[in-house]
Structures are given as C-alpha cells and as structure tokens.
Give the backbone structure.
Amino acid sequence: MITEGKEFLKKIKGDVLILGIILALAFLTWLIPHITEDDTSGSEVVVLRDGNEIGCYSLSADNIITFQGTDGSYNLILISGGTVKVTDADCPDQLCVRQRSISKNGESIICLPHKLVITIDSPEESDIDAVTN
Amino acid sequence: MKSKTAYLGLLLAFALILSYIEVLIPFSFGIPGVKLGLSNLAVLLALCLLGYRDAFLLTVVKAIFCGFLFGNMTMILYSLSGAVCSFLAMAVMMKSNRFHLLTISAVGGVMHNAGQLLVAYFVVKTYGIFYYVPILILAGLIAGILIGTIVTLVMPFIRNVIKRGTNI
C-alpha cells in the first residue's frame, strides 16, 4: 500500500510537470502574437468596393479620404498616426463608423451596406494571399 | 494473453464504430480539427493491453480505414500524421512509467492536433494557421483528459474480463 502511494506520488510529479509545460506552451503561443510588434512600416491601406480595389494609401502618411459611391453614398476615412478609422458615413447601420480604429496587418473595417472593405496590408502578406487565394 | 490477433481485431472494430459515432454526432466547434477523437479510446486500450507494436498497427490501420470510410485522401493524411504523432508521444510516456494514464491520454490529444497542424502547414503554407495553436492545444488537452478518464475507469473491468477469459 505504501509503495503504491509512493508510485502514485511519483507519477503525480510527472503529470503536473508535463501538464504544466503544455499549459505554459498554450499560454505562450496565445501571448506571442499579442505582444510581438507588428511591422506596419511598409503597410498600405487598401480600399475595396465590391471586391475591386478602388484606393491604396500609405499607412504611415496621415490622410483623409472620402469615398463616394455612384448613388451618392459616402464613407469618410481617416488615416492618422498609423491607425485607420471611418469617421463618417451615410450607411444605414453605421457599423463601420462605430468600429474601433485598426492598426495591425490583416485587420479590416467593413461597411456592408456600401460593400466597402478597408484593410491594412503588408506587402509580403499580400503575396501569400495571392498564392493561397 | 494468447489471442492477441483477436483482441486487435476487436479493438479495430471498436475504433471504427467510435469513429462512426463521432461522425453521427453533429459536433462542431467552428474550428477545423477540434473534435473529441473518441477512437483514441481504442488506441489507448491497445497500448495498455496489447503492447506497442500492435497498438501502432491499430493506429495506422484505424487512420487509413477511417479515411476510406468517412473521408478522403486528404483526411487520411491529416489523421495519419496526427495519430502517429499522438501514438509516439503516448508510447514514450507509457514506457517511462512515470505518468498516469490520464496525462498520457491528454498529451496524446495535444500531439494529435500538433501532428495535424504540421501537415496543414505544409498544405496551405500560411503562418496564419498557427494562430490556432493555443485553441488546438487546449482542445486536445480537454479531449485527451476525457478519453483518459474513460480508459482509467474502464481498465480494471477489462483486465478482469481478460483474466477470467484466460482462466477458463
């Protein structure tokens, strides 16, 4: 009985060690994408309407652009300090205006009523997207 | 145990039925690759009862059969890599005799997902899939612990039955 108890304790040590390592690994793999500095120095703000690119601007240069649709609808986009935001739009749901500003590669703001997609693209990443498209 | 082949066949049938049940249950977590992995029950039982060689055979045959029955060639590739990774990890841990069955199963679950993710990376070649890693680790851990619990609870009974069987 005592040897059995010892065996149990010995195994518990191994169990705790290995499960601890796995949990630490899970935590680290979750943490790393959150803390690593995303290199957005060469990134561009790409604007698509209905899937077609209608504008491409540098993320690092401050800019205010208005996108006017054929039916008179508009979205006002503000690029400042490496972040992008839709400041004004006449779409019915106003979701794009309410969405927080984006600043990382791959993030996007979408205005569904106007079929407008605003994404931040790094030059390398768009290569990969083109391949796996 | 004399009739190893019979037990191997029994466990293979068991594994295939479990896979079938898993296909039947509409069990989707919205993330590809996250599933319960019920058929690992059979692999774990084989590891405990039959030894490493037969358990490995079961692992490989199970993955190939499941692929043909419920999936396609890609699925065979995924599940084979996952199953072999998982088996190797579990076999090493079993051999070291320093872990409980529960932990062995948990690590097996995690390694299953790791193996699949590796193949997925070579298929799509996008680092993007590694965002899934933490989710897949946790999912594998939980699934493995569930399977490990079942095997731990069931093992004494099975050993009993086998012992009685050979006595007759």
Observations:
- The domain at 44-132 of chain A is CATH 2.60.320.10 (mini-chromosome maintenance (MCM) complex, domain 2).
- Chain A touches chain B through 19 residues (CB under 8 Å).
- The first helix of chain A runs from residue 2 to 35.
- Chain A has two domains: 1-36, 44-132.
